[in-house]
Design brief:
The protein is mainly alpha-helical. The protein has 2 domains: 205 residues, HUPs (Rossmann fold), CATH 3.40.50; 90 residues, Tyrosyl-Transfer RNA Synthetase, CATH 1.10.240.10. The chain is built from 13 helices and 5 strands. The chain has a 3-stranded parallel sheet with strand order 1-2-3. Strands 4-5 form a two-stranded parallel ribbon. Strand 1, helix 1 and strand 2 form a beta-alpha-beta unit. The longest helix has 30 residues. The mean pLDDT is 91.
Length: 338
């Protein structure tokens, strides 16, 4: 009797830039959910340092942030033995595949990318070719590992659609080469907004008082929450259209306590915005303090973190080469020795 073969796990790929600091929005929308995926899927988490240099970086600071981000991945609960956590620049296949896929991507497609327009406006003195073509590198990141699922938010849907278009175009010419990835969407209602402009998503590229950073100490968290925008009528209710600031604060508590915003609003009915903000700060601090303590411990052992990145880069490189060699063969690149 033959031993049954275990079904191959689907592959999830996600990348985060080591530019700036990660926010509470990143944690609620992505990081805290990653731990739940590691047994069911083969998960690949990339520190996308190649994407980061579309904006000028200070070299030593970028290297430090790469280690810090790896530490945040692990401190948030990810097991580096179950998940592949590595730096993008350590796997040359990202750049090699990106060049090939550039030749299968049309200028009109890249011209339509809204993030290029947004970043060009913010960095008008450095509108470089990498900024224009980085959606192709993003597509390469995903397709290099035959990714099945990509955790994305609403602002990344356009890039995933381009990735799918490029993969389907390549497959149309050369056969079944790339897996066509699907989006993996987290729980509805996990979108956390800016503390000062609550109609916009919380973003690490905005001024510091608009977001809570994952490594902010408790006194800084309390100060930022205390200054958060609310409104003048003092009623605590979940109404994103008419009370975006209050609704955002309710959403933060709800997400961290696995409640609905309406349940939180009912608990705080009649207690005023001061009590609401106090509750938000308490919830955020209670959530982040254990992760911050573990991150501090990890950063004190940089040799361990470097070892994780080195070991996982070897795993990622082996996976990537399977796809890259197939692609190179399909497009007609010269054979190479073993």
């Amino acid at each position: 009797m033959e031993t049954p073969v275990a079904p191959q796990k689907k592959i999830i790929f996600s990348g985060i830039q080591p530019s700036g600091t990660l926010t509470l929005g990143n944690y609620i929308g992505a990081l805290r959910n990653f731990k739940k995926l590691e047994d069911e899927y083969q998960c690949i988490y990339c520190v996308v340092d190649m994407h980061a240099i579309t904006v000028r970086q200070e070299a030593a600071a970028l290297r430090k942030r790469c280690l810090e981000l790896a530490g945040i991945y692990i401190a948030s609960g990810l097991d580096p033995k179950k998940n592949v956590i590595y730096c993008q620049s350590h796997v040359s296949g990202h750049a090699e595949l990106s060049w090939i896929l550039n030749c299968f991507t049309y200028m009109g497609e890249l011209n339509r990318m809204t993030q290029f327009k947004d970043k060009s406006a913010k960095h008008a003195d450095n509108i470089n070719a990498g900024l224009f073509t980085y959606p192709v590198l993003m597509a390469s990141d995903i397709l290099l590992f035959q990714t099945d699922l990509v955790p994305i938010g609403a602002d990344q849907k356009q890039h995933l659609e381009l990735t799918r278009d490029i993969a389907q175009r390549f497959n149309g010419v050369y056969g079944d080469v790339f897996t066509i990835p699907e989006g993996y969407f987290g729980k509805v209602g996990s979108r956390i907004m800016s503390l000062q402009e609550p109609t916009r998503k919380m973003s690490k590229s905005d001024p510091e008082d608009t977001f809570i950073a994952l490594l902010d100490p408790p006194d800084v968290i309390r100060r930022k929450v205390k200054r958060a925008v609310t409104d003048s009528d003092a009623e605590i209710r979940f109404d994103p259209a008419n009370k975006p600031g209050v609704s955002n604060l309710l959403s933060i508590i709800a997400a961290l306590n696995d409640q609905t915003p309406d349940q939180v609003a009912a608990e705080l009915q009649g207690q005023g915005y001061g009590k609401l903000k106090e509750r938000v700060a308490d919830c955020v601090i209670a959530t982040l303090e254990p992760m911050q303590a573990e991150h501090k411990r990890l950063m004190a052992d940089k040799a361990y973190l470097q070892g994780v990145l080195d070991e996982n880069a070897q795993i990622a490189n082996k996976m990537a080469m399977k796809t890259l060699r197939k692609v190179q063969r399909k497009v007609g690149f010269a054979d190479r020795g073993r």
